[in-house]
Design brief:
It is a single chain. The relative contact order is 0.13. The chain has nine helices and eleven strands. Strands 1, 2, 3, 4, 5, 6, 7, 8, 9, 10 and 11 form an eleven-stranded antiparallel beta sheet that branches. It is an alpha+beta fold and 296 residues long. It is elongated. It folds into two domains: 4-107, Homeodomain-like (Arc Repressor Mutant, subunit A), CATH 1.10.10.60; 123-294, Regulatory factor, effector binding domain (Multidrug-efflux Transporter 1 Regulator Bmrr, Chain A, Alpha-Beta Barrel), CATH 3.20.80.10.
Amino acid sequence: MQKPGDLLESVLNEIEKRIKEDINADFLAEKAGISSVHLQRLFKFAFKQPLGAYIRSRKLAASLESILSTNLNLIDIALEYGFEYEQSYLRSFKKEFGVTPGSVRKASRIVTVMPPLNLLGAKLFENGIMFKPEIVMVPQFHVIGKKYKIPYSDSINMAPKIGKHFWENERSKIANAMEPNVYIGLTRTGGIDVDYNWYLPSIQVKTLKNIPQGFDSYTFIPSLCAKFCYIGQHHYFEINRNRAKSMYSAIENFFDCEYGRNFSRISDIYFEKIETDSYDGEFCQMEWFTPLKNQK
C-alpha cells in the first residue's frame, strides 16, 4: 500500500497521462491497489471535490485544445476524450464553462478551466499527509468533557492517551450530544501556570445544561480560524506522540512561511476535531483549528 501522498500523486499523474481514455475511479483504484470507495473518499477529503467530477473537468479542459486548434467535428472530439455520446459531451461542456463548444470555437472566447491538481504545499508524513490550511469562520459552539492539567513539555505525549481514555470510558455519560461520534480536543495554553496546558477531550452539545458531575464545559466564541486537514493511513487512536509532533511542526512552519506571516494567532486556545465515523478501516481524518487575525 502506498503512502497517502504518494497514492494521490500517482492518481493525479495517471489522469493526465490517460486524459483521452475512458478512465474512472474503479480503473484508478485498481491501478493504485485499493478499493474504489477508499480512493474516492480519500480524494474528496483531500481536494474537496469528487474524483469523478475532477476527471470530467480535466477532460473538458483538455478538449478545448482540439476545439480551438483543429477542425474536428464535435462528435469526434467527444469520442477522442472518452465521452460515449456527443450530447453528453455537449451537456457537460455547457455545465462546466457556461457556453457551448461551438460558441467557443466561433468566437474564440476565453473560458476558465480546471488546472491539474498537485500536492505542492502539502506536508507529507510517513503514513499521512497534511495540507495547507483553509481560512474559515467557526461559529459558536458548546462542548462538555473532562479537563486535565498536563505539563507543557509532555502535552504531545499525554493528550492522545487522555483523548482515547475519554472516548472509550467517559463520552457516553454526556446526554445531550449533538454529534456523539465527533471528538473535539481543546487545548488552552498560557495563564498563570506557564509550564502547563489545560486539555479538554470533549463532544459538542446543544446546551450546557445537565453537565455530569466531574465534567467541565467550554463555549468557543465565533472566530476566524486556520483549519488544517490531516489524512493518516492508520486508526485515529494511533495519532501518537510522533505523529502529533509532525503535525505541530507543519503548523508552525506554515506561520513562518511568507503567506502564513499574513496572519497571527490571537487566542490561547485551539482544538482538533475527529469525525470517527469517517474511518473506513484504512484512513483516518482529522482537522485542527486555531483562531487568528489578518495582519494586513
